[in-house]
Amino acid sequence: MRAPGAAVTVALCGRGEHEPPCPLAPHHTTAERSGDDVCLRVLFVADPADEAEVRGRIEAALSRARLDGPDGVTTHWRPRRARPGLARQDETAHAERLTLT
């Protein structure tokens, strides 16, 4: 369930585990399972000039539909759909904290 979020981190930061700050876009992912489906939400902050690159990296990471983990295990998933959105009201404080990293 965590592999797609880890793939996003690798795409944005170069590796899954690292010390802050994130080099391109501080971000946070959440994953929620509903039956066999997992809904991933990526909250990020980026300079407006970098937004298209950040979104492109996220979409590319998720569309690859696989992650080779550090333990040698490859995880696969099947992307269904992706769409950009805005921070929800309940995410505003978290987004503000991300701008400080």
List descriptors:
101 residues, alpha+beta, two-stranded antiparallel ribbon, 4 strands, globular
Q: What strand line-up does the widest sheet have?
A: 1-2
Helix content: 25-40%
Q: Quickly count the domains.
A: 1
| Overall residue-averaged pLDDT value | 92
| Low-confidence region ranges | none
In N-to-C order, the SSE pattern is HEEHEEH
Radius of gyration: 13 Å
DSSP E strands, number:
4
Alpha-beta content class: alpha+beta
Terminal Cα span: 26 Å
Strand content: 15-25%
How would the global form be characterised?
globular
Number of helices: 3
Q: Main sheet?
A: 2 strands, antiparallel
Could you explain how this protein is built, in words?
It is built from three helices and four strands. It is an alpha+beta fold and 101 residues long. The chain has one domain. Helix 1 packs across helix 2 (51-64). It is globular, with a radius of gyration of 13 Å. The two termini are 26 Å apart. Residues 68-101 are annotated as: Disordered. Residues 88-101 have a biased composition (Basic and acidic residues).
